[in-house]
Amino acid sequence: MEEQYSQIRGQQSAIQRILDANLDRAREGLRIIEEWCRFGLNHSQLAEQCKEMRQELARWHSTELRMARDTPGDPGTALTHPQEETRSSIEHLLQANLCRIEEALRVLEEYGKLYNPEMGIVFKQMRYRAYTLESHLLVYRRHQKLRESLLYLVTCPHENIFAVVEAALSAGLTLVQYRDKETEDLSRLSIAYKLSQLCYDYGALFIVNDRVDLALAVNADGVHLGQQDMPIALAREILGSQKIIGRSTTNPQEMQQAIAEGADYIGVGPVYETPTKAGKAAAGLEYVRYAAKNSSLPWFAIGGIDTANIKDVLTAGAQRVSVVRAIMQAEQPALITGQLLSLLTRKRTFPQLQPKTNVLTINESTEK
């Protein structure tokens, strides 16, 4: 009988230690997310949501559970993994801690059922709240980065595409679109996946041109659609509300239609004639001037823009530009990227555009 009692007592102690460790883990992860929402995003609603969850966890963190802690005797304190030692970007840091929170809540849900049946119910509900927090946080962060991006690189087939893109990313580029209408699908899938990982490592957004299926397959940040591609609403249905959708426009009518259909950003051009748009007349600087006065969305002037003519485009009212050959065919892509970003940064004096309402609602249960 004594042996059985000792075994039961040992199990209870182990469960208490598990609950204590995971309450700490979830609270720590939430604090890390909360700090970024508060100081990085200046988003009081998301920060408050994190704080409420932390406080609710604290109410369950009883003295009995804390007293069960045995840090010197815990073999897990010596365990580590190389991925835990570094964080390559804010996105990486946020994702790692969101996963930490969700995993801890699942442990609390399951072991909590053995300690207090109510814990299983409470932490199951909180886990779904954490999933919602993750969704809204990543959407907000994604759209924030879109608004902050001044230079947009659209790739073209290139034998050293990864080296060129990485050079541009290392120089501060934060927005890349994979555009390739020639390569077979299996190769495109491989290239898109590698570019997606490269952008993730540098904390940059990755967009796929035309192909919603390819964007979905490599978990891209979004897709860019031309005038002849699928409707924005259908792309949104396939990709989900979290992804970015851009639309090419060549005149005021197409711009207003893209805005009405729910695009997240638009391409404005081609400003100059370009082989990327063979046979299409340039929209010219007049359309740039129109966009500067009338677009309610982030927009990128595009088409034949390089270091020689970018000042004219900026003078016409552009704040953001998209380039292809200027970087993809440059002997020193990092240098050109730096020069373009320097010119764009000096020009940027406009107030921040606000994200769409649906991006900020947290209480709900480019070149083609």
From TrEMBL:
Top EC group:
transferase
- Specify whether Metal-binding is a keyword of the entry: yes
Any idea which positions bind Mg(2+)? 210, 229
Residues annotated as binding 4-amino-2-methyl-5-(diphosphooxymethyl)pyrimidine = 177-181, 209, 248, 277
Sequence segments annotated as region (Thiamine-phosphate synthase): 130-368
Which branch of life, at top level? Answer: Bacteria
Return one GO MF term: thiamine-phosphate diphosphorylase activity
Per the record, the pathway is:
Cofactor biosynthesis; thiamine diphosphate biosynthesis; thiamine phosphate from 4-amino-2-methyl-5-diphosphomethylpyrimidine and 4-methyl-5-(2-phosphoethyl)-thiazole: step 1/1
Catalytic activity annotation? 4-methyl-5-(2-phosphooxyethyl)-thiazole + 4-amino-2-methyl-5-(diphosphooxymethyl)pyrimidine + H(+) = thiamine phosphate + diphosphate; 2-(2-carboxy-4-methylthiazol-5-yl)ethyl phosphate + 4-amino-2-methyl-5-(diphosphooxymethyl)pyrimidine + 2 H(+) = thiamine phosphate + CO2 + diphosphate; 2-[(2R,5Z)-2-carboxy-4-methylthiazol-5(2H)-ylidene]ethyl phosphate + 4-amino-2-methyl-5-(diphosphooxymethyl)pyrimidine + 2 H(+) = thiamine phosphate + CO2 + diphosphate
Please tell me where 2-[(2R,5Z)-2-carboxy-4-methylthiazol-5(2H)-ylidene]ethyl phosphate binds in this chain.
274-276, 304
Q: Which residues form the Thiamine phosphate synthase/TenI domain?
A: 151-327
Its GO biological process annotations read: thiamine biosynthetic process; thiamine diphosphate biosynthetic process
In short, the EC number is 2.5.1.3
Q: What keywords are assigned to this protein?
A: Magnesium, Metal-binding, Thiamine biosynthesis, Transferase
- Cofactor note (record): Binds 1 Mg(2+) ion per subunit.
The text of the family note is: Belongs to the thiamine-phosphate synthase family.
NCBIfam families linked to this entry: PRK02615.1, thiE
Name under which the protein is recorded: Thiamine-phosphate synthase
- Organism (species): Gloeothece verrucosa (strain PCC 7822)
Gene giving rise to this polypeptide: thiE
